[in-house]
Amino acid sequence: MKNFKSQISYKKFLILLLLFILLPTIIFCKTENIKSEKQKEVAKFLEKKSFSDEVIVISIATLPIFELRLAIPFAINHYKMGWKKSYLLAILGNFLPIPFILLILKYGVNFLMRIAFFRKFFEWLFARTRKKGKLIKKYEELGLILFVMIPLPITGAWTGSVAAYLFGIKFVPSLICIFIGICCAGIIVTIFSLLGILGLIIALTVLGALFIIWIIRFIQRLKIS
């Protein structure tokens, strides 16, 4: 059993190591190289459908994983919008689905759990969120704000909504805390987007430090097991 767990841990370690090696390229493409051919094609496709630039930015911000992390640099670097407009549109888009997510989780989960596909999905989602939501479990509303405001792929408004539901934070406080977290995250992403290459270097430094901390903890867990 221990050998099996160790094998899984090593696989996770190798995957994360590969992601970290590729991270500079990924971030560079999303910030400085936002005009890549693929992104141009997406923008052209949406523009052909007669969507305004503002609607496209809002739409990107509503999507899980992307949220305002991609919407703000896309607005600033691709559409050349002012930072104030980019910030406000991304905040609006990021917050739009949150009330619906919280309501679905509150009133719809028990019904959806009766369906095998949704049951497996929610079991996976809840298990993953519990692991990532220790900050919320410990500090509750304050933890929820901090969790949402950290602009990383594993955090954000969508994951924060699920965590708020799991840890029993009520609807209205959840909305307020998530909104505050979104606003703070928007400030961080806007600053990095405006800093350009310097923002990229700072982001990589922070992510590198976090990755080193994770490696240290990973090695410690291996020694214990």
Structural descriptors:
about 80% helix, about 220 residues, globular, mainly alpha
Strand element count: 0
How many domains is the backbone divided into?
2
Q: Mean of residue pLDDT?
A: 77
Please work out how many helical segments DSSP would assign: 13
Helix and strand succession?
Answer: HHHHHHHHHHHHH
Note the main sheet.
none
User: What share of residues is helical?
Assistant: over 70%
Calculate the terminal CA-CA distance, rounded to whole Å. 10 Å
Q: What is the subunit organization of this protein?
A: single chain
How much strand?
under 5%
Overview of the molecule:
This protein has 225 residues and is mainly alpha-helical. It folds into two domains: 1-32 and 197-225; 33-195, no CATH class. It contains 13 helices and no strands. Helix 8 packs across helix 11. The N and C termini lie close together (10 Å). The relative contact order is 0.12.
State the gist of this model.
With 225 residues, this protein is mostly helical. 82% of the residues lie in helices and 0% in strands.
Secondary structure elements and pairings:
Elements: H1 2-30, H2 37-48, H3 53-62, H4 67-78, H5 83-95, H6 98-107, H7 109-112, H8 116-132, H9 134-139, H10 141-149, H11 157-166, H12 171-195, H13 197-224
Helix pairs in contact: 1-13, 3-4, 3-5, 4-5, 4-12, 5-12, 6-11, 6-12, 8-11, 10-11, 10-12, 11-12, 12-13
